[in-house]
Please model this.
Amino acid sequence: MVEKIINNVTSLDNRSTKNTAKSKISEAVVNIDAIDNVSSSIKENKEIIGKLSSNAPIDLEKVSQIKKAISSGDYPLDLDKISDALMQAYREMKS
Model:
């Protein structure tokens, strides 16, 4: 009678070990799929960023006008606004 109980317990332990191994394998497969999804998502994002950066929405004519105005001294500067922005940036860096 004791031998039957021991055999039953042993067979239950073997089943549980097999089930645990199967679940770990399935978890590993799920993790690999998740990594593949993240990897492809990163590649897609890099492609999108590349496309956006190559076609940046910059008005080159406006930029050249501003450069000319700065070089000739005709570009208006609001010194109070500039100093406020610099102080705000300093406060943010400090905290």
